[in-house]
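Quick one: examine the sequence and fold tokens given here and explain what the tokens say about the fold. Here goes:
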Amino acid sequence: MKFNQLRDFVAVAENGSLRAAARALGLAQPAITRSIQELEHSLGAQLFVREARGVRLTSIGQEFLVRAMLILGEIRRAREAVNQRQGEVDGELVVGFSSAAHLGILAKILRSFQTRYPNVRLRIIEGFLPTLEAELRNGQVDLYVGPVTERVQPADLQITKLFDNTRVVACRRGHPLTNARSFHDLADAAWLTTSITRNAEDELKQVFAEHGLGAPHLVCQCQSAFSVLTVIINTDLLAMMPVQWIESPTVSGFVEQIKLDEVFAAPPIMMVHRPGIGLTPAAEYFSHLVQRVAKSEEFMTDSNHLSVRQF
């Protein structure tokens, strides 16, 4: 089994055809065909089913793809780690951020990271742990920063707590329920949720139950901050969002907080990555910046808790 065979196999799987994979890699199609045939021969198994419009993975191919991507990811990290230790600041860093981490952390570390590693390509993916968990395992994502609930903490991933967090009820500016002061006043409202948990209902069901209310009226579920913002601005839906949404000047001009008497805890913000072989120097520095900002964010969040309770 050779490196180029794994590379070609993943390219075919991702592009859906030999021709598209050859084009993506800048190689001749016969070379890709030969590479895949040699790989299948060495494994003694068929990885693709040839079809009129391309290829599709067999069940064995699907399982092998996970391991092939993991191997290629580790080879990439090994090469970049050596280069960066020798003073060459190139490579790629793939990080997943939740909306709260985008607004509360990412904006505060970008300039420092780019100054230290100007030639490392930073690829940022918006999402939550349930949507990025597989990519963290197979090496496609180096780090995840965002909320992690107690019930969703995979034992095979390294999880570092950054700070506890708070949620607020957010709505569009001028919403008819802006002056509500109790969560009970919102019992009949329509809500949107994110994908922090696998089941959308889990994000609000517990809060409603704690206040003696029935199940929430869920109308929409969004996976991106832009989708959440678009829905909130253009509807009367409410959303329980991390406090960073209200504190950030990026979105605070479009949404406002319904200032309720109750204080709502949010899942803590965590940093997650694969354990074992370790991070590249660029990833290590990025994680250092994240933790440094998180300390100040934790102080600010604790101060917000204190001021709310005193008020």
About this structure: Residues 302-311 have pLDDT under 50 and may be disordered.
